[in-house]
């Protein structure tokens, strides 16, 4: 006897083929880049499209300081971030940068423009460089989230890889797991 599968068989492909977001502007950008992938055959467009499908956790923000560091010596190129570009108050001087991103924080945009740089949206980028030539694809640090610090073995064990939570959070977790005493995770 076999497994009673629905018509069409079981799903073997697990990657996203569309964004989960209901944002109409994001859907329009996806529509545009689907067209560009089909008509240009550019690997750059394929990567951008794949990143547009990603969840917000997988589209981490990129700070202005990192952007400046990555673009050093490449001022003639356009930095492309499929995510948010955020401001960094620790940076005093901002060079003239050309950056395309899904979002810019107000202060980051203001500082880039004040320095004589340019901020593009993805539809503007598609008009300027349809194949993605003379661009640099950048990403923010994915594991810089606060939550990632708590991943790993439980803090009970001597050699720990994950940070412990505060006492309140530990108690909340215990009630969720159904632990009987408060000393199991401490």
From TrEMBL:
InterPro entries: Ribosomal_eL18, Ribosomal_eL18/eL18-A/B/_CS, Ribosomal_uL15/eL18, Ribosomal_uL15/eL18_sf. Gene3D superfamilies: 3.100.10.10. The keyword Ribosomal protein applies. Residues 2-155 form the Large ribosomal subunit protein uL15/eL18 domain. One of its GO terms (molecular function) is structural constituent of ribosome. GO terms for cellular component: cytosolic large ribosomal subunit. GO terms for biological process: translation. It comes from the Eukaryota. It holds the Pfam family Ribosomal_L18. Keywords: Ribonucleoprotein, Ribosomal protein. The keyword DNA repair does not apply. Belongs to the eukaryotic ribosomal protein eL18 family. This is Large ribosomal subunit protein uL15/eL18 domain-containing protein.
């Amino acid at each position: 006897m076999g497994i009673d599968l629905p018509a069409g068989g079981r799903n073997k492909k697990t990657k996203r083929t569309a964004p989960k977001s209901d944002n109409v502007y994001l859907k329009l950008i996806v529509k545009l880049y689907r067209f560009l992938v089909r008509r240009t055959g550019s690997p750059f467009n394929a990567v951008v499209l794949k990143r547009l499908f990603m969840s917000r956790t997988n589209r981490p923000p990129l700070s202005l300081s990192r952007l400046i560091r990555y673009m050093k010596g490449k001022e003639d190129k356009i930095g492309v971030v499929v995510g948010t570009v955020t401001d960094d108050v620790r940076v005093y001087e901002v060079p003239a940068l050309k950056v395309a991103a899904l979002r810019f924080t107000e202060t980051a945009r203001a500082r880039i423009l004040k320095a004589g740089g340019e901020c593009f949206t993805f539809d503007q980028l598609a008009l300027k460089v349809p194949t993605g030539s003379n661009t640099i694809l950048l990403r923010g640090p994915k594991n810089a989230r606060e939550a990632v610090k708590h991943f790993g073995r439980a803090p009970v064990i001597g050699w720990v890889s994950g940070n412990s939570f505060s006492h309140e959070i530990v108690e909340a977790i215990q009630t969720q797991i159904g632990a009987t005493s408060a000393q199991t995770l401490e």
